[in-house]
């Protein structure tokens, strides 16, 4: 039982060391991820369009 109590005490101490992100940091990360995904999606759509057009002209 002593190990169990010690485990929870150490766990609580470790949780106290954790630095949680602020709302602003979360929002900035979300905007960054959204922008990168949108740009990559547009790039891949453009490459797909070009390749589809090229293949249709060759066939």
Automatic annotation (TrEMBL):
Per the record, what is one GO cellular component? plasma membrane
- InterPro entries for this protein: SecE_bac, SecE_sf, Translocase_SecE/Sec61-g
Give the GO biological process terms.
Answer: intracellular protein transmembrane transport; protein secretion; protein targeting; protein transport by the Sec complex
- Coiled coil: which residue ranges? none
Q: Which domain of life is it from?
A: Bacteria
Q: Which residues cross the membrane?
A: 29-53
Give the subcellular location: Cell membrane; Membrane
Q: How does it assemble?
A: Component of the Sec protein translocase complex. Heterotrimer consisting of SecY, SecE and SecG subunits. The heterotrimers can form oligomers, although 1 heterotrimer is thought to be able to translocate proteins. Interacts with the ribosome. Interacts with SecDF, and other proteins may be involved. Interacts with SecA.
What function is annotated for this protein?
Answer: Essential subunit of the Sec protein translocation channel SecYEG. Clamps together the 2 halves of SecY. May contact the channel plug during translocation.
Instruction: Name the HAMAP family on file.
Output: SecE
PANTHER family documented for this protein: PROTEIN TRANSLOCASE SUBUNIT SECE
Name this polypeptide is given: Protein translocase subunit SecE
Source organism per UniProt: Campylobacter fetus
Name the lineage: Bacteria, Pseudomonadati, Campylobacterota, Epsilonproteobacteria, Campylobacterales
Gene responsible for this protein: secE
